[in-house]
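Appendix B. One record, verbatim.
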Amino acid sequence: MPLLTSPFAELDLLRQPEQANDPLQAFDAADEYLLEHLAEQSPTASTRVLVLNDSFGALATSLAPHVAVLSSGDSHLAHLALEKNLVRNGLAFDAVPFVAASKPWQGPFDRVLVRVPKTLALLEEQLIRLQGQLTPGAQVVAGAMIKHLPRAAGDLLEKYIGPVQASLAKKKARLLIATFEPKPAFTSPYPTRYQLDAPHLELLNHANVFCREGLDIGTRAFLPHLPKDLGDARVADLGCGNGVLAIASALANPQAQYTLVDESYMAVQSALENWQVALGQREVTVRADDGLAGQPAQSLDVVLCNPPFHQQQVVGDFLAWRMFQQAREALVVGGALYIVGNRHLGYHSKLARLFRGVEQVAATPKFVVLKARK
């Protein structure tokens, strides 16, 4: 794989989760452009730099030996990638402090480097949280490949930070450079909430939660067909989002034990808050993790999953396939994985390669609900 070469370092970087013969690299021209721009500012060891949404640690690992850098984002996989890539390049795994997007930062910062996230609500929330966190004359520099850089990103920078200058394009990447100017205090519009009729719930959603404004159609197709009469089964909601599948299941199965897992810190925060509103102090485990990688083998009876079909801007079934493998490992013999998926994704044949039996529980014109028994 090619090395990331910048004025700060030459790095050998891996993506997370690791994939054999991965054709994709762990950095792009927008990372290179951000690092070149910062180098032109001649930062010193005391320059405080906040790095946001650094998918695989390319920015923070480059900067670690040179400035006081803090990394923050909403991806547990990005945090894992940062730790692994620091070690891979001769640094301590904790050489760069990481703050989950669900937690506050401690500024002030002289420079902020932002990879523009796919969800602009996350960018907006992050820019609002920069209030009171910037030094006079600070710059907030957002970078992206041009094909992934919406006009609204510049509008948000202008609204919350100050005047924005767009760079020239370079290797199909562009920077938006915002110079901080004091503004009146803003109130965040996040979290948002929406109502669910069956079961009757109000669901809270922090800024980066998938389908934040309303129930996604896959989950809507899944909810009426969740398994019943689970007794005291050990159930995991894999890729839990705001927790709706687990909460609906738990309301119908008062003795079952639940574990909710997502790689998004804001999803986990939303799921825990929603669980507490719906189910009070009923015991639950909610954690940010690399799927079920941290789950002991044969420790679950049921796994519920509405699998993702993309990682950031990359579309594919690699993450879903990995989740199915993790579910199989975590389930007891005779345990079952229930999933919902688009018909065209062909999950039935994929599951049949891993599980003893696969049956279709329900179908709509667009979705299928499948049960795979170990």
